[in-house]
Input
Amino acid sequence: MQFAFCTEYSEKFRRGSLNIYKLEDNIFKSYARYYDLLYKDKDYSQEAQFVRKLLMTYAPKAKSILELGCGTGRHAAQLAKDKYTVHGVDFSRAMLKQCTTLIKKLPADIASRLSFCHGDMRSVRLNHRFDAIISLFHVICYQTNNDDLRATFKTVKTHLKPRGLFIFDCWYGPAVLTDRPSVRIKRMEDEKNSITRIAEPVMYPNENCVDVNYAVWIRDKQAGKVEEVKETHRVRYLFQPEIEQMLALSGLSLISAQEWLSGNELDFNTWNGCFIAENK
Output
């Protein structure tokens, strides 16, 4: 799959938001170094199978997928095993470096169905349209204002074939307000490193946003050295009516809303909502 044009920034963003881009890139540069270890308990295979089930239900002829916010490429690799061709876009060059490492470890037939490029989901433009677009693990939540969300949905509209499918998950507002974010501690380790992460949330009710303040300690088991990393990730929780409205304004139609992985109806206990839209 060849792409003639993969822009990193649109002219609009070059003029007004370069400092924001640099900040985001620095955040994910640190995050990428320990991302796969921190989420080694994440069942990418199960999640990819859920996406495949949605594709088979709503777009059974789909073969090509664009993933916006592909991270280290784990979802893409699982979908490539299911014979989909997947092109991933991510703003973090450090994350994309992990994708390159991943491809080298895969069998040639699976690796041949994968490609990745650097770009911002709000402004990236590829010379290609896809049968489906996915954005997983709450990447949409990083679009914390309406302009960002509209720009992202415009990117989706631009790259979807007619009747193409858009699948994404996000923090679902009613559940976030019912069971509010709290301090959480996570510990993971492998043969080389151990990681302890403390997440301390600060909510902004009038913005529907949460600052998740991370303090991470990474211990090199062999050297005995401990590195500390501090990051703040601002994320937005979303409600179905605003999602439906913004999709419609972008020429997309919401066709299903359900709980991520279970497929159950959204309710006050559904922290992770999954939304499926179609290109009109």
Remarks:
- The chain has two domains: 11-173+238-279, 175-236.
- The chain has a mean pLDDT of 90.
